[in-house]
Amino acid sequence: MKNPFSLKICFSVAVSLLFLSGCASTRIIEVPDGTEVEFSSVLKELKGARVVFVGEVHNSRSHHQIQLRIIKAMRRAGIKLAIGLEMFPKEKQEVLDKWVSGELGKGDLIRAYAENWRVPWSLYRPILLYAGKHEVPLVALNVSSEVTHRVFTEGLGALTLQELEGFGSIKCDVDERYEALINEAMGEHEDSEAEYINYCEAQVVWDTYMAKRIVEYLKENPDKTMVVLSGSAHAWKRGIPRRISAMSDITYLVVIPEMSDDIDRDNVTEGDTDFLWLDP
Prior knowledge:
The chain is of the alpha/beta class. It has helices at 13-21, 39-46, 61-76, 93-101, 106-116, 121-134, 145-154, 161-164, 176-186, 193-220, 232-235, 240-247, and strands at 28-30, 35-37, 51-56, 81-89, 138-142, 225-231, 252-257, 275-277.
């Protein structure tokens, strides 16, 4: 069965090399008016939010460079940051705490990373090393993969009351755009209505759990702003941000990189993101 939350890689090798060389220009669209804005203008907006979502295609090196650029700029601006990570489940929070405090070696961090995420370590390495060097707190946002797998295959009824505690009312209540993404992820084969509901409920559980972790952390740390690094299917406003709005009045802004036909300059809406970072 396909993982419904993986998104296609859409930057070519040539574009990635251009971005890495520093020759690519920065082009950012402010949504919904469609005007191009400077990074400095975006930074001014981001400074006013408690949560900044920066989406990614997991395997795209250029997307992770965008994330690190935003993290560095916000920290230089004097913002007290925490970094929320989809790639670590809550159970690994102690590992991240020890890394940031200097109690954990890089080798142990790499092993913990490899236990939870199949994307090459090298793509996230600069961000995690930067956080360790500057003691920027790292927050494990993800729910256990075992939980999402059970919902994926059996539906919400497979979860215990304890596992459901704190989620509120979970149901497949996504809009048409999100539904289209799920259908695309499920592929062209015939799926039953029950299978679609399971896919959808798993995504809602995933988004809701990460939203809950973000809200809890920021309530406990009112001086912090969190930069959330996650797949764009979670970072767009229809994902985690929507679930945050249902739980709290915490302010957020969303930055999504352009991703071929999924979210691009021709189809992006204010229901997707606040800023679209264009393919160079």
